[in-house]
Structure formats: structure tokens, C-alpha cells
Amino acid sequence: MKFLFATLLFVSLVLSSSFVQLSFAIPVMPTPTPAAPVPPPSPAPPSFCDGKCGERCSQAGVKDRCLKYCGICCRECSCVPSGTYGNKSECPCYRDKLNSKGNPKCP
Questions:
Q1: 86: in domain
Q2: Is the pTM of this model over 0.85?
Q3: Which residues constitute the domain of residue 79?
Q4: C-alpha distances in Å from residue 93, one per residue of 2, 41, 106
Q5: Please, which pLDDT band fits residue 81 given cuts at 50, 70 and 90?
Q6: What is the 3-class SS of the chain, one letter each residue?
Q7: 89: alpha, beta or left, given left = phi > 0 and alpha = psi -120 to 50?
Q8: Ramachandran sector of residue 88 (left: φ over 0; alpha: ψ -120 to 50; beta: rest)
Q9: Residue 71 pLDDT class (50, 70, 90 cuts)
Q10: What CA–CA distance (Å, rounded) separates 52 from 70?
């Protein structure tokens, strides 16, 4: 009787350990399919940027530098704030661009 009881106990332990291993197994998740890439916004045409940046930099002390950085920002953001200074809230992309030192990039 003791032998039968010990055998049944041993078999139940072996079976329960196999079920424990199955319950702790990491489920295999299917690999997600990559989403279609979102195309970047189309850059503004040079004539648009030239005219807007010409207005923006008309009173700048260093006009050529102002035109250069305004042109870069205009092509990337497709907008230029109105006026010669300020009004950057009209174009958040233009407002939020920073240079490598953490200062505003766009005039």
C-alpha cells in the first residue's frame, strides 16, 4: 500500500510540474506588420519662401544670415510668421526649431 501511495504521489508531482512549465511559458506573439510610413510634408516652393523671408528679414541687422536661416526654416515648416519680428505662435514648427546650442534657430 505504501508503495502504491508513493508511486501515485510521484506521478502526480511529475504531471503537475509539466503543467506548471506550460503555464509559465512565454506566449508567442505574432510579429506586427509595419505601418505604412507617413510621407513628410511637402516643402514650400522657393518663391514662397523667398517672398516671405524677404518680408521677415527686411529690417534685420545681418540680412544675409536672417535670409539663410529663415529659408531653411520655411522649407522645413512650409510657413513663416507675419511681420518682421515675433508672431511665432502663427507657425509652431518655425517657433520650436532649435540650433545645436538650444537657442531658437529661426529668425
A1: yes
A2: no
A3: 46-96
A4: 81, 12, 10
A5: very high
A6: CHHHHHHHHHHHHHHHHHHHHHHCCCCCCCCCCCCCCCCCCCCCCHHHHHHHHHHHCCCCCCHHHHHHHHHHHHHHHCCCCCCCCCCHHHCHHHHHCECCCCCECCC
A7: alpha
A8: alpha
A9: very high
A10: 9
Neighbouring C-beta atoms of residue 94, cutoff 10 Å: 24
Number of residues in the chain: 107
> In this structure, is residue 10 part of a structural domain?
no
- Tell me whether residue 19 is in a domain: no
Q: What is the rounded distance in angstroms from the CA atom of residue 91 to the CA atom of residue 74?
A: 10
Q: What is the CA radius of gyration of the chain?
A: 33
Give the number of domains in the chain.
Answer: 1
**Cell numbers at residue 32, please?**
506586427
